Amino acid sequence: xxxxxxxxxxxxxxxxxxxxxxxxxxxxxxxxxxxxxxxxxxxxxxxxxxxxxxxxxxxxxxxxxxxxxxxxxxxxxxxxxxxxxxxxxxxxxxxxxxxxxxxxxxxxxxxxxxxxxxxxxxxxxxxxxxxxxxxxxxxxxxxxxxxxxxxxxxxxxxxxxxxxxxxxxxxxxxxxxxxxxxxxxxxxxxxxxxxxxxxxxxxxxxxxxxxxxxxxxxxxxxxxxxxxxxxxxxxxxxxxxxxxxxxxxxxxxxxxxxxxxxxxxxxxxxxxxxxxxxxxxxxxxxxxxxxxxxxxxxxxxxxxx
Amino acid sequence: xxxxxxxxxxxxxxxxxxxxxxxxxxxxxxxxxxxxxxxxxxxxxxxxxxxxxxxxxxxxxxxxxxxxxxxxxxxxxxxxxxxxxxxxxxxxxxxxxxxxxxxxxxxxxxxxxxxxxxxxxxxxxxxxxxxxxxxxxxxxxxxxxxxxxxxxxxxxxxxxxxxxxxxxxxxxxxxxxxxxxxxxxxxxxxxxxxxxxxxxxxxxxxxxxxxxxxxxxxxxxxxxxxxxxxxxxxxxxxxxxxxxxxxxxxxxxxxxxxxxxxxxxxxxxxxxxxxxxxxxxxxxxxxxxxxxxxxxxxxxxxxxx
Lengths: 305, 305
Fold this sequence. Notes:
Two copies of one chain form a homodimer. By secondary structure, chain A is α/β, with parallel strands linked by helices. The first copy, chain A, has a single domain (2-234), classed as TIM Barrel (Alpha-Beta Barrel). Helices cover 45% and strands 10% of the residues of chain A. Chain A is built from twelve helices and seven strands. The first copy, chain A, has helices spanning 26-38, 58-70, 87-99, 118-132, 145-148, 154-163, 178-188, 202-207, 222-230, 237-251, 256-268, 285-298; strands spanning 9-12, 79-81, 104-107, 139-143, 168-173, 193-196, 212-215. In chain A, the strands form two sheets. The first copy, chain A, has a five-stranded parallel β-sheet, covered by helices on one side. In chain A, strands 1-7 form a two-stranded parallel ribbon. In chain A, helix 4 packs parallel to helix 6. The mean pLDDT of chain A is 96.
């Protein structure tokens, strides 16, 4: 497991800043990434669910990864979601990631059709991996069935591990189902890393040996997220968990990505951060004002949170 | 409503034949389309759900529409699904359809994110229509919430009709929820046409004034489908409905698209028709043999069904 060394720590599930024409604001995207490195994050994960990834075309996603690298983000610290409904798109995005020197890819099964058989899901991953045919490729299996409608079963994961032991390095479990996450850990960690997307489960998973997270909350509280994993039984553990739960409680009053972006707009004093791509809707002015009040009470401390 | 004249009759939701490398077999696609015209169908609908549409890239879908037209399918008889998770993809596909002279487009809301607000869905349709900005564009709203996880509410439909009265011409309701389909008809037909994807509801909807269907079953029983709509209260109505239900009963024993393609393989004596793109899985040899027995009992009569 030579690859476990870099694959640790916090990789924020990057929010995607947009220009007034709702294109990706690449300079802002790179600036945001570098601020997260400055806060101690190991890497960044563009184009996950929080990052509205499938709302962007293949060309937009490739240009943005190129732009991050050109803007000073080390390619080896990018774990990019190359998930797509069409396999040729997933292949094109994944090939670009490998050829650009990205650390690896986060990959969903195709998410349009429902009720698909396990064998079909295995076929999808296998076809992408076989078409890339590059031993530099690292794949993190991405499980978020409440969004995709497609579950990754233990059979799918075990089959892929057996077939591609050097390529499949982990599972990002964003199901929010703690018992399922623990079952993944018991069955597959090691050799895989199992990382949860649901921040309230981070300490429990860290106690099982999980050494990192791809986290939406880490966009705005990277230091606290690092402690939840690396110091899960430390002196601040209970306080940190209470704080992350309070933060998630605030988010819950709004649409999640729109609220995250509203918080970025507050922290960066840049209203442009509020923009989202349809089918999401940006916070209304009234919601944004309420969020400002909520966040004032929360008193986010960027040097500590 | 000058556009109701061509928008009637049966538009099969085309199955997508594949080559041994799992690319679209364009000559076979055109041949299949023309055989359906020869059986009396008004038009064809490529790249819906039965046609595995979102499993193909934008470039593949554009090349296939070009190939249908070059292969002798009249553009004005193509209603193409231009649905995509990313709006720029939907715009590119829709622009190509309009510029190619296609009859119109069948358009889903983006289908990755869930729990999206009505306003976000309205924004998606509006952004596509506004970016095309071509009065030749005709849009059929596509409702299949059990697959997309995104519902089209009456508010969304009414808002879009009010904003784009000449562009929005119909609703394809593949929800399989008869009461919902009747409610759509009561609320919006006319001026919209409401077409159901669930064949057992066709006669009920025809009695409400629905004059057509985009139907998967029509790939293999186009004549019977035409009677279910145009002669919904005719002498053969009860027998035809019993027959379509028996056929759907056979399909239900297999994965739907894989079974449709297996039946095409039997009818055309061409095993290549069995191919599907992952995440679907083709019928196994054992399933295909069982399907052959099922279809022998069903005794499909291509001159009558």
